Amino acid sequence: MTKQISINEFVLNISDGKPYLVGGKCLDCENYTFPIMPGCPKCAGTRIEKAKLGDQGKLWAWTVQGFPPKSPPYLGENDPEKFKSFGVGYVELPEVIVETRLTENEPAKLSEGMNMELKLEHLYTNGEGEEVMTYAFSPID
Amino acid sequence: MNDVAIVGIGMHPFGRHDGVTGMEQGAVAVREACKDAGLKWNDMEFAVGGSAAAGNPDKMVSMLGLTGLQFTNVANGCATGGTALATAYNAITSGVYDLGIAIGFDKHPRGAFASNEPVHPVDGGLDWYGGSGMAINPQFFSIKINRYMNKFGISHKTLALVAAKATRNGSLNPMAWRKQAFTTEEVLQSKMLAYPLTQYMFCSPGEGGVAMVLCKAKHAKKYTDKPIFLKAAVMRSRRFGSFEVKSSWLPKEENVGPTVDASLAAYEKAGVGPQDVDVAQLQDTESGAEIMHMAENGFCEDGEQEEMLQKGETEINGRLPINTDGGCIANGEPIGASGLRQVYENVLQLRGQAGARQVPNDPKIAYTHVYGAPGISGVTILSS
Ligand SMILES: [Zn+2]
């Protein structure tokens, strides 16, 4: 099987079993950020630790990216002939609201408040033949 | 405190100008502004310049004349022009200078603004953010207006009305980039770039330059018969809980954006309220932004935009004309110049020199608002 690697283990951990997003939690005010930050934007504290974020939540807001993003920085397919539109939005997790790709790209099938869960999405295959994965949330019943 | 007057304005047309650098466009605007005030570049005691992509503004002294003046460069994303003006305003109100110039120019490559950089600094590299297809400005605006429309009952047609108005006003503006007026239907049927926003609802990165000469109000009559007074020029950055472009996360507690803070502070400083404003230029990166900014700047309650737009209240002949020069949608977005373009338009309106797009009944109070990444707003209030 092709080896899958995370686009960045610092934000998306796929090496410890079930994939999860890695956030930061302020030990002073309990505010969560995604990803972890060197200082807390809420209370200005600096005692911050890594936090595993929940993998289910509710769709908070969304759009559909209808044109190929510029590359760089985009690492996925941006050839206008092959590009497929993709959903982008915010999902409210138990800890924090995170920005994410969505697996669904049809406006009629997206609505605020719907239940979503974390999935991996293949972004590109690198020079070593490894599949580089990013995160996307997918509607669940 | 020293009051401030605008006594000269200059502009290089907006649009695409192959073979002309952004800085040259800025220099054209400077010469025009000096001429408008009956002054020369070497009369300027200080300059404040903003440009995001066309070089450090202070380099332009090479083209304009090496007079040794204090020249400060500023940068605040799409709010850069507003920052240049606020900085110049502070230099005069503080009493340090009597006469100076605010300058903004830019020249951007074609295509949507995109980057790797989230609004919050993070460790561990940034490849994942823009790399995964996020951090694209149009996405943010689309996500934000989509949520706003659901919450406050704004229709797709109303989005299109904003863009149709912008292109109609732009068609009356000789300095505008896009002079073709689109109908509401044409706007709705153009390509869906990021749901719910279509191609004709967006502004594009562009080129242009604007400059204005400012002085202590008590000296204004030396330079012009029609001084326009800068009653407030305020900048604010975001607070915790506001929803800004390139936010890879949001806290659950929501807060008002920097526009609300800047707006309230500007009204207080100027001693007027939204009901006193006769003409307004609001950041319209796309048509949804104009709609949200109408409420954030105090011109209506959330949701009232639907009726205001349908009734034409924000047209040039309406109760509160908004973006009379066509806004960013018709003029494009040269980041450094946009905020000053708005003020330039308001000066024309208050002088009664706006030609085919002149707001009727002798407007007296004019308002501008810019918004930029990563959550900066600038507001000015002018009076005749
Ligand atoms: Zn904290």
Write up what this structure looks like.
The complex is a heterodimer of chains A (141) and B (384). With 141 residues, chain A is mainly β. Chain A is 0% helix and 44% strand. The model of chain A has no long low-confidence stretch (mean pLDDT 95). Chain B has one domain: 3-Layer(aba) Sandwich (Peroxisomal Thiolase, Chain A, domain 1). Chain B has 12 helices and 12 strands. In chain B, helix 2 links the parallel strand 2 and strand 3 (70-74). In chain B, helix 6 packs across helix 9. The longest helix of chain B is centred in the last third of the chain and has 17 residues, at 335-351. Chain B is globular and about 55 Å long. Chain B starts with a strand and ends with a strand. The mean pLDDT of chain B is 94. Chains A and B meet through strand 4, strand 6, strand 7 and strand 8 of A and helix 4, helix 5, strand 5 and strand 9 of B. Strand 8 of chain A pairs antiparallel with strand 9 of chain B, so a sheet runs across the interface. The structure holds zinc ion. Zinc ion binds next to loops of chain A. The site of zinc ion has 8 residues of chain A, from loops.
Q: Report strand % of chain B.
A: 15-25%
Record the strand order, biggest sheet of chain A. Answer: 6-7-8-10-9
What is the total number of structural domains of chain A?
1
Output mean pLDDT of chain B: 94
Residue stretches of chain A low in confidence (pLDDT < 50, at least 5 long) are none
Strand order of the largest sheet of chain B: 3-2-4-7-1-8-12-11-10
Using brief descriptors, characterize the structure shown.
heterodimer; A: 141 residues; mainly beta; four-stranded antiparallel beta sheet; 10 strands; 44% strand; globular; B: 384 residues; alpha/beta; Peroxisomal Thiolase, Chain A, domain 1; nine-stranded mixed beta sheet; two-stranded antiparallel sheet; binds zinc ion
